[in-house]
Specification:
This protein is of the alpha/beta class. It is built from 17 helices and 26 strands. It folds into three domains: 164 residues, ANL, N-terminal domain (Rossmann fold), CATH 3.40.50.12780; 180 residues, Rossmann fold (3-Layer(aba) Sandwich), CATH 3.40.50; 99 residues, 2-Layer Sandwich (GMP Synthetase, Chain A, domain 3), CATH 3.30.300. Helix 1 crosses helix 2, helix 1 packs parallel to helix 9 and helix 4 packs across helix 5. The protein is globular, with a radius of gyration of 24 Å.
Length: 548
């Protein structure tokens, strides 16, 4: 029913604009144009220059036929060109596809074909794999691309070119667009990101301008980020569009400190040289910083980190506190734009012991301020579980910070949205204070003799041993118990410990049936964002063959 407030009060250009993070770039160029935006080796760009370069790229892409609904794929490390792509491509209403730089040619060709990429921007470091990729794309899928080569000044290797255009020359050819406009409809797709493959079945996750805008704002609100943060790119920007932080930094007039390679020495040197105050990373990167020589941390200011990408072990959270880093734990998935929940640190936690703080901070927490719903439900009945820390269900999200769906996969989209909520596949409990704690992925629960064993709980116990730098626990088939826990372990440099000693260590922390029956000291397969690929380890366990 229409009311008096609907009469002659229409949406107009004066009072309604589609939400898009592109608007943040225009504002920072207008208001903070003289302030630093990008640092990369010897290169420095202000916000006015960054906006100008992005608008030149947008003009060049438009001349190539890129428009609303076109896909522009990029194969780039964390460089200025990657930042500019995040600003230029959405400004045309086109869709940004950031490729995982560690994938093989066959999978890259499949993804480029699946998202119907029209243009590829690629860094010379990846010329060998992209040369093979483009050949496969042509021979297998019958598709050609317009290729733009990036010859980054910070890449020490050969600057091989695969395409018709060199990035800097292309920017010089075009006058910048008068304005980076953004979409007419905020529901328009802004990006397609392929799941990282921990299940072996990547899907094209389509996100929209509204969600990217709101999650960029949520990042700042969640982390209480001030204006002008100095942010180090330890997180790959190809992963969930850098958790929307390219746009958060634009909103705050911050400084992007680029980093081509994740290395503890390079990270800590960049933090000291540029007085970095914020960064994001998966647990494995934080572990690198904990284990780095103490002298590398000299000269650091107050550094705040976000950890996500995998459930962080309590030992890692304790370790970061010991070396003086302020760590916040967030949780999410590609389907919710990266982080969409946070373990909000309450003032009372500061008086708890380091061990208890690690337990509290290690939870997945509560929904982001601009996410409408997050809870734990029985996926069959869709009833919320009791907030008692014992009853387990599946974490589910609902709201504007949820994907549009999976590209060309309506069945998977419908299944993931069953009952009006996005189903994450993560099994968890709600603790009495309403904070959510993951117990495991549904496929990673080990059922031994009828008892459920959380692989995460066993991994937490292993991580508490000082010799363990990485571990993963999976089910091993057993004729008597059905399944038993099998642990794969990587040791810290120079550390020595036997399987029997680790088993004894676990017995001191866990019920007997949860203790690993076998420990294998082997390299653990990981994605480029640090997630452990348990599906590979499960296959190893089934074959009963040790590697290495």
């Amino acid at each position: 029913m229409r009311s008096i407030y609907d009469h002659e009060l229409p949406k107009t250009a004066a009072n309604f604009v589609a939400l898009s993070p592109v608007s943040f770039v225009e504002r920072s160029a207008e208001v903070f144009g003289d302030l630093p935006a990008v640092i990369h080796g010897t290169r420095r760009y202000s916000w006015a220059q960054t906006r100008d370069r992005s608008a030149r790229l947008a003009a060049a892409l438009r001349a190539m036929g890129v428009q609303r609904g076109s896909t522009v794929s990029v194969m780039l490390p964390n460089t200025p060109e990657m930042i500019e792509a995040h600003y230029a491509v959405p400004a045309l209403g086109a869709v940004l596809n950031t490729l995982n730089t560690r994938l093989d040619a066959a999978l890259l060709a499949w993804q480029l074909n699946h998202c119907e990429a029209q243009v590829l921007i690629t860094d010379s470091e990846f010329a060998p794999v992209m040369d093979k990729t483009l050949a496969l794309l042509k021979s297998v899928h019958g598709r050609d691309l317009i290729v733009i080569d990036v010859c980054d000044s910070e890449f020490a290797g050969e600057h091989a070119c695969l395409g018709q255009h060199e990035y800097e020359e292309l920017l010089a050819e075009y006058a910048p667009l008068v304005r980076l406009e953004g979409p007419v409809d905020e529901w328009d797709a802004i990006a397609v990101s392929y799941t990282s493959g921990t299940t072996g079945d990547p899907k094209g996750v389509v996100t929209h301008h509204r969600g990217a805008y709101l999650n960029a704002v949520s990042n700042a609100a969640t982390w209480t980020m001030p204006h002008f943060p100095v942010y180090l790119w330890t997180l790959p920007m190809f992963h969930c569009n850098g958790w929307c932080f390219p746009w958060t930094l634009a909103m705050l007039g911050g400084t992007h400190v680029c980093l081509r390679k994740v290395d503890a020495k390079l990270i800590l040197e960049a933090m000291a040289d540029h007085q970095v105050d914020h960064y994001c990373a998966a647990p494995i990167v934080h572990s690198l910083l904990i284990n780095a020589p103490a002298e590398l941390r000299v000269g650091l200011g107050k550094v705040r980190g976000l950890v996500a990408g995998a459930a962080p072990p309590a030992a890692m959270i304790e370790g970061m506190a010991r070396i003086g880093f302020d760590l916040t734990h967030v949780y999410g998935l590609t389907e919710v734009y990266g982080p969409a929940a946070v373990a909000v640190q309450r003032p009372s936690w500061a008086s708890a012991s380091i061990s208890e703080q690690a337990r509290l901070n290690g939870r997945q927490g509560v929904r982001y301020a601009l996410q409408e719903g997050m809870t734990v439900m029985d996926p069959e009945s869709m009833a919320e579980v009791r907030a008692d820390g014992a009853h387990m269900g599946e974490i589910m999200f609902r709201g504007n910070i949820v994907m549009k769906g999976y590209l060309k996969n309506p069945g998977a989209t419908a299944a993931s949205f069953a009952g009006g909520w996005f189903h994450t596949g993560d099994l968890a409990v709600i603790e009495p204070d309403r904070y959510v704690k993951i117990k495991d992925r549904s496929k990673d629960i080990i059922i031994s003799g009828g008892e459920n064993i959380s692989s995460i709980e066993v991994e937490d116990a292993l991580y508490r041993h000082p010799a363990v730098t990485a571990c993963a626990v999976v089910a091993k088939p057993d004729p008597k118990w059905g399944e038993t826990p099998l642990a794969y372990v990587e040791l810290a440099l120079g550390a020595r410990v036997t399987a029997q000693e680790l088993i004894a260590h676990c017995k001191s922390l866990l019920a007997g049936y949860k203790v690993p029956r076998e420990i294998r000291f082997e390299a653990i397969p990981k994605t480029s964002t640090g997630k452990i690929q348990k599906f590979q380890l499960r296959e190893r366990a089934k074959s009963n063959e040790a590697i290495g």
